[in-house]
Amino acid sequence: MSIPALTFDHDERARSRRFRRAFVVAGAGLAVGVVGLVYGSHLAHGPQIAVTLLGSLGLTMASLAGPYAYMSSRRRRQPFVRLDARGIEDRSDSTHFGLIAWNDIDGIRTDPSMPGHVLLDVRNPEQYLRQLRMIGARFRPGYLDALRARARHCGTPVTIRTHRLEADETMLAKEMARYLDAFGDSA
Predict the structure, then answer these.
(1) What is the C-alpha to C-alpha distance for residues 97 and 160, in angstroms, rounded to an integer?
(2) What's the CA gap between 94 and 78, in Å, rounded?
(3) Do 165 and 80 meet the contact criterion of CB atoms below 8 Å apart?
(4) What are residue 98's DSSP bridge partners?
(5) With a threshold of 0.70, does the pTM exceed it?
(6) Could you tell me if 20 and 26 are in contact, meaning their C-beta atoms sit under 8 angstroms apart?
(7) How deeply is 115 buried, as exposed, middle or buried, from its count of CB atoms within 10 A (0-12, 13-18, 19+)?
(8) pLDDT, position 154
(9) Tens digit of pLDDT for each residue in 84-140?
């Protein structure tokens, strides 16, 4: 059975929220900078230095916010979630699981206690936790312990976040189940 690869990318609303936040920060920094530099020169010597430094910091913040927003939007050239014959390629957040093979997946489900997540019941969760440790969880202390607690709570540590995707957890779970039927062990 030939099913084309399916990708889920960043939700445009989330991207526009990031740009709005960056430009609000830039505007606030610009306002603080201009006020600090213009009115700082009219103050006494002690406060003048502090207000001038605050103005310089505001201008620096303003000058960095725009390029940061632009670079962060260009950073992800790959889709967040990709479904193909090999499995599910998860890049939904900074500590993603990478490729999860269809043969390793026993079930796909959603849980009302975890909105915005698709839960994957995998045969060897410790392998994916080790893989996650190599990818980037080492930079977030306690993250692996949190995933183990999640496994006790909902039965699996392997989840895919849908908060930033253009699909909700129900739609993503249905598509994943369709691919699992086509490419999993029973196929």
Answers:
(1) 8
(2) 13
(3) yes
(4) 90
(5) no
(6) no
(7) exposed
(8) 83
(9) 888 988 876 666 777 889 999 999 999 888 888 899 998 988 887 777 755 555 556
The order of strands in the sheet holding 6-8 is 6-8, 81-83, 87-90, 98-101
- Rounded to 10°, the helix 143-154/125-135 angle is 150
| DSSP output for the chain | -----EEE-B-HHHHHHHHHHHHHHHHHHHHHHHHHHHHHTTS-HHHHHHHHHHHHHHHHHHHHHHHHHHHHHHH--S-SEEE-SSEEEE-SSTT--EEEEGGGEEEEE--TTSTTEEEEEES-HHHHHHHHHHHTGGGSTTHHHHHHHHHHHHS-S-EEE-TTBSS-HHHHHHHHHHHHHHHSTT-
The torsion region of residue 48 among left (phi > 0), alpha (psi -120 to 50) and beta comes to alpha
Assigned token pair, 144: 């692996």
Closest CA to 132 of 149, 123, 145, 117: 145
d(CA 186, CA 180): 9
Q: Which residue has the tokens 């003048």?
A: 48
